[in-house]
Specification:
The chain has helices spanning 4-20, 24-34, 46-60, 65-82, 92-96, 114-123, 169-172, 186-194, and strands spanning 89-91, 105-111, 129-134, 140-150, 155-165, 183-185. It is α+β, with helices and mostly antiparallel strands and 198 residues long. The protein has a six-stranded mixed β-sheet with strand order 3-4-5-2-1-6. Helix 4 packs antiparallel against helix 8 (186-194). The longest helix is centred in the middle third of the chain and has 18 residues, at 65-82. This is UDP-N-acetylmuramate--alanine ligase. It comes from Comamonas koreensis.
Length: 198
């Protein structure tokens, strides 16, 4: 159920996501603090926040965001092609269409051997940093993070390879509650790029 507070948090968080490039979780928490609400206030779910982000983009970024999204998707294709052997899938804002020039690119890899992705980056001469994040089921997965210049945007963009086990791939392709695919293959991203931007 969407309460007034939930919408207020979502709208405040949406501005932070778009204007500051904040990730959704931290944006919600900061919105609660900024609105002076109690720390235990229920946070809006991601569907509510996504609706608020889309509305904000339409109202304030309609003239710039489609071109920025396209540049990020083109860049994602290049980084997916480099790691094609590891079944790359694009996720996050660049996949779902809410990305701006401040958004990072998240590419999920599904590997027989998690270290093989690192070896491939080394072979490509790519410098990266390793960190750990929570995976689909709360397990720890490696994130291989790169900073790469996106020439059309004149910005350095974070590209993050999230390294999953090959067995995770089947469950990862299930649609969400609204029937949408939460990630896209290289072919799916290429198809998006053939569609006209609005």
């Amino acid at each position: 159920m969407k309460t007034d507070a939930s919408w207020e948090i979502a709208n405040t968080a949406a501005r932070m996501v778009v204007e500051e490039g904040l990730e959704w979780g931290p944006a919600k928490k900061r919105a609660v603090k900024q609105l002076g609400l109690p720390g235990r206030t229920a946070l809006p779910d991601n569907d509510v926040l996504e609706a608020a982000v889309r509305e904000y983009l339409e109202l304030f970024c309609g003239d710039t965001q489609p071109a920025e999204l396209r540049a990020l998707r083109e860049m994602a294709v290049l980084w997916m092609e480099r790691m094609q052997a590891f079944r790359p899938y694009l996720a996050g804002a660049v996949w779902n269409g809410t990305a701006t020039r401040l958004s990072d690119i998240y590419i999920q890899l599904f590997c027989d051997d998690s270290k093989s992705a690192e070896i491939a980056l080394i072979d490509h001469g790519v410098r990266y940093e390793v960190s750990s994040i929570n995976g689909f089921h709360g397990e720890t997965v490696d994130a291989l993070s790169i900073s790469s210049l996106c020439k059309p945007l004149h910005e350095s963009i974070g590209v993050h390879y999230l390294v999953y086990d090959l067995d995770d791939l089947r469950g990862a392709l299930k649609p969400d509650a609204q029937g949408r695919t939460p990630r896209g293959s290289l072919e799916a991203v290429r198809r998006l790029l053939t569609q006209p931007t609005e």
